[in-house]
Amino acid sequence: MNRGTIRSYFIGDAQADRVVPPSGFTARLTLFAAGAMAFLAVFALALSLAAGRLADRWASELARSATLRITAPADQMAAQTEVALTILRQTPGVARARALSPQEQAGLLAPWFGPGLDLATLPVPQLIEVTEDETGYDAAGLRLRLAAEVPGAVLDDHTRWRRPLVEAATSLRRIGWISIALIGGTMAAMISLAAHAALAANAQVIEVLRLVGARDVYIASAFVRRFTIRALIGAVLGTGLGMGGVLLLPAASDEGGFLTGLGFQGLGWLWPLLIPILGALVAFAATWAAARSRLKELT
Amino acid sequence: MIELDNVGYSYGGGALLSNVSVTLAPGSFHFLTGPSGAGKTTLLKLCYGALEPTSGRVKAFESDMRGFDRDQMAMLRRRIGVVHQDCRFLDHLPVADNIALPLVVSGRDMLREAENLRELIAWVGLSERADALPPELSGGERQRAALARAVILSPDVILADEPTGNVDWEMSMRLLQLLVELNRMGKTVLIASHDLGLIRAAKSQVQARVLRISNRRLQLAGADL
Ligand SMILES: Nc1ncnc2c1ncn2[C@@H]1O[C@H](COP(=O)(O)OP(=O)(O)OP(=O)(O)O)[C@@H](O)[C@H]1O
Ligand SMILES: [Mg+2]
C-alpha cells in the first residue's frame, strides 16, 4: 500500500464508488454505531481526565504536606509552638514549616462555625503546616522527637485518609481508559460485522469485479472508503453531542466536589476532537481486515 | 499465449478432464465442442485461472499460473477477455457502464475511451439499450453486452463460452464477425460452442481448429465438421 493508494481512499474516485451498490442498512448501522460509541467515548474521556486531575492533585498534596496539631493549655501554647517549629526546621526533608495565623485558622473553621468566629474564646489547637522537600522526612523519627519535646503535638501526614481517595481516583481513571478501549473495540466489532454483511451482500459484485481484472486493493478500497467516511461522520456527530452534554454539566466547584469536576478544562477540550479521528481509523482498519479476509476466499 | 500441459481436473469426484494438452498459439482461432457436461466451461476456467488444475500445468503468456499471486491474476484477467456462459453483470449499473467496467477497474482514462466505447456498443447493437439495467435485457442482449465487455480492453486472448447461445442466426453471425475481425487483428480466440452451424460458418472465414472433449480427453476434430 503506497501513499498514492492511501490518498485515493480519501479523495476517492467517483467511478470506484459507483461499482458497489449503495447499501441502506449497513450505512445507517455504521453511522449509528459510530455516533453512539463516540458519544460514550466523550463521557469516558471526561471521566478519565477528571479522575486523573483529582488523583494528581490529591497525590501531590499527599506527598507534599502534613499538619502538626498542638494542643496545650493557653499559656504554654506559644512556647510549645516555638519548640515544634524549631524541631521541624532542623529536621532533614522538611522544606518549610509555618504556623497558621489566627485568621487562617478561623477561615478553616468557618464552614462549621460560620464567619465572625473569635478563636480566642475557644480552645482551638495551633496548626503548623509542614511542607516536604523532594527527599521527604522520616515521619516515625519526627514523631518520636516531638513526643519527647512537645507533648501536645500530633503529626498528621494525611496519608491515612487521603491514600484510599487517591487510589479510588486512580482506579476511576483506569476504568475510564479501559472504557475507552472497550468502546473502540466494540465499535471495531460492530463495523466489522457491518462490513462483513455488506461484503456478503455484494458477493456477486465482487466476483464480477475480480473477473474483469480488478485488483483486491481496488475492490477493498471501494468498501473501506465508504465505511471510513460513514464512521467519521457518525463519530463527528456523536462527539459533538457528547461535548454538548459535557458542556451542560455544572461547572467545577468546591462545594460539589468530584461530581461537578467532570468535564474538560482549557486545552482538555481538544482531547475529544481526537475521537472522530480515532473512530475513522478504527473503521478503516476493521473494514480493511474484513475485506482482506473476504477477498482471500475468492479466486 | 495459453498452454495446457497434461492437465487433469476433477471437482472432487472422478476425473472430469485428464491428460489435456493444448497450446493456443498467438493469432489462432479455436472452437471447443463436446456434449453438455463434458467440461467445456471447466476447461475455459482452467485457461483464465478461475480453477487450478488438479494435475499438470497451465501456462499463460510464458509463465506458470500456479506461481501467480492475486494481483498478477488480476493483471492476467485484463489480458484475457472472457465471455461467461452465465453472463454476470453489476445489476445496479447501466449496460454502458458494465461494458466499460474493465476500463474503470484498470484505471483507464474514460474520456479518451468514450468514443471507442460508443462504437463498440453500436457494434453489438446495444446503442438503444445502453442506459438499461442488465436485469432488463433479453438473454441475447446480455450475451452481446458480455462480449463487448470482454473485448473492450483489447485483450490478447478472447475466451467465449457459448457466446451465441441465446441469439438468433443473424445476430450470431454478427458476433462471429466481430470475433473473426478481432482474430484478424492478431487476437487469439477460443469459442466453446455446440453450434455446428456457427463452426461451419466460421471455417469459411478463418482457419479455425476444432477441439472436442470426449471421454475426458481433448481431441482435434477432423475435417468432417
Ligand atoms: N462447481 C462445481 N462443482 C462440482 N461439479 C461441477 C461444478 N461445476 C461443474 N460441475 C460439473 O462438471 C461437469 C462439467 O461441467 P461444465 O460446466 O464444464 O460442462 P460444459 O461442458 O460447459 O456443459 P454445457 O455445455 O452444458 O455448458 C458437469 O457434470 C457439472 O455438473
Ligand atoms: Mg458450459
Overview of the molecule:
The complex is a heterodimer of chains A (299) and B (225). Chain A has helices spanning 3-11, 14-18, 24-64, 74-90, 102-113, 139-149, 159-201, 203-211, 216-248, 274-296, and strands at 65-70, 94-99, 126-132, 153-156. Chain A contains 10 helices and 4 strands. Chain A is an alpha+beta fold and 299 residues long. In chain A, helix 3 packs across helix 9 and helix 7 crosses helix 10. A 4-stranded antiparallel beta sheet of chain A has the order 2-3-1-4. Chain A has 2 domains: 3-56 and 163-297, no CATH class; 72-151, no CATH class. Chain B has 225 residues and is of the alpha/beta class. Chain B has a single domain, classed as P-loop containing nucleotide triphosphate hydrolases (Rossmann fold), CATH 3.40.50. Helices cover 36% and strands 24% of the residues of chain B. Chain B contains 7 helices and 10 strands. Chain B has helices spanning 40-48, 70-79, 95-105, 110-123, 139-151, 169-184, 196-203; strands spanning 2-9, 17-24, 29-33, 55-60, 63-64, 80-83, 157-161, 188-192, 208-214, 217-220. Chain B has a 6-stranded mixed beta sheet with strand order 6-7-8-3-9-10, sandwiched between helices. Chain B has a 4-stranded antiparallel beta sheet with strand order 2-1-4-5, covered by helices on one side. In chain B, helix 3 packs across helix 4 (110-123) and helix 3 (95-105) packs parallel to helix 5. The mean pLDDT of chain B is 89. Bound molecules: adenosine-5'-triphosphate (ATP) and magnesium ion (MG). The site of magnesium ion (MG) has 4 residues of chain B, from helix 1. Magnesium ion (MG) is lined by residues 40-41, 85, 161 of chain B.
